[in-house]
Amino acid sequence: MLSPKSTEIVRATLPAVGGAIGEITPLFYDKLFAERPDLLRDLFNRGNQANGSQRQALAGAIAAFATALVEHPDVRPDAMLARIAHKHAALGVTAEQYELVRRHLFAAIAEVLGEAVTPEVAAAWNEVYWLMANALIALEARLYEGAGVPAGEVFVPCRIVARHAETADVATFEVRPLDGRKLPAARPGQYVSVRVELPDGARQIRQYSLSGRPDNALRFTVKRVPGDPAGEVSNHLHDHLDTGAELQVSLPFGDVVLEEGDRPVVLVSAGIGCTPMTGMLDHLAATGSARRVVVVHADRGPADHAFREELRQLVAKLPDAEAHVWYERPEGEWPAERTGYADLSAIDVPDDAVVYLCGPLPFMRAARAQLLTQGVAPADVHYEVFGPDLWLGADA
Predict the structure, then answer these.
(1) Which of 140, 166, 174, 310 is catalytic?
(2) pLDDT truncated to tens, each residue of the chain (396 aa)?
(3) pTM above the 0.70 mark?
(4) How far is residue 83's CA from residue 87's CA, in Å, rounded to a whole number?
(5) Residues 53, 361 contacting (CB under 8 angstroms)
(6) Domains of the chain with CATH codes
(7) Is 383 a catalytic residue?
(8) The one catalytic residue among 29, 98, 191, 208
(9) Does 356 qualify as catalytic in the annotation?
């Protein structure tokens, strides 16, 4: 809990800090990478730095946490903190790195806001930072302990034992540890980090959702990412790594996981967002679940729909499941009657359902709005986002 004095200072200065956060975060990263260029080369996603999404996510997280402290002082934003902690653990972030971040972040704040950053203001925001940092450090320590590894040591040398083409630009990789160790059980909906060495010597890391549960293996699915900047790691995996190749893969992490129990489940996805949903559906089928399951998916067309046939097979295995698929360009008999964007208002959402969303942010926002209109409680709508979470702080 923020101290009373700091609460008043932060409340008074939040508009100024929030208004300048767009200037503060780029300057922070410039300072950080000037001292530690290895972090940009080997830890941070260079693509997200280039397009600005990581900077937006950091700004959103700081503003959301500070706002929560002053508006709801007795409630810690645990959902937001868990999301960040799992992302950090999957990258191997350690407690020592938080002081490095604090130093450069506060230098950037002081440079942008100038004389407005009095010793009292600096002390109040330092309190905010360490409340957030220490909470994350504690959460990450528990994640490392639960994974049975020392802090930060989450990567396992693996070999690709199988590769499957799902579509022209989506491939699934199955990997096993080189030393034959037993992997910890992954929960449906989790992801792994994959670290590869690129031609320029950088060891870049990306996170990919697990799309199934093979025996003592990890199965993750990767979509090729075109554009500028193109997906460095995804395209490298597609172009250069096949069965027999070695790569570094983290233990599984992720806070958006399939809830146990017998409540109805609604899985809503678009495009490659079907990946964690396929992992959840695979788990339900493999465990013989009798739960009511409704799957909703939107895609460009049948040829672009990864796991199209697997979706049909998994739904057929479940005693009380149905799938609704929308294509912008439908072909063939299934599901030609649904053309265009997914419309959840046309779906009978079961009472007391728990809902999982994954796909582009505009799609998830629209889907969530339709679900809330149908009476689904906000707390029952969970979402997974690929890359920096630009929805942090939303009522989700």
Answers:
(1) 140
(2) 789 999 999 999 999 998 898 899 999 999 999 999 999 999 988 888 877 777 777 877 888 888 888 888 777 778 788 989 999 999 999 999 999 999 999 999 999 999 999 999 999 999 999 999 999 999 999 999 999 999 999 999 999 999 999 999 999 999 999 999 888 789 999 999 999 999 999 999 999 999 998 888 999 999 998 877 778 999 999 999 999 999 999 999 999 999 999 999 999 999 999 999 999 999 999 999 999 999 999 999 999 999 999 999 999 999 999 999 999 988 877 665 677 888 898 899 999 999 999 999 899 999 999 999 999 999 999 998 876 554 554 443
(3) yes
(4) 7
(5) no
(6) 4-147 (1.10.490.10), 155-250 (2.40.30.10), 265-384 (3.40.50.80)
(7) no
(8) 98
(9) no
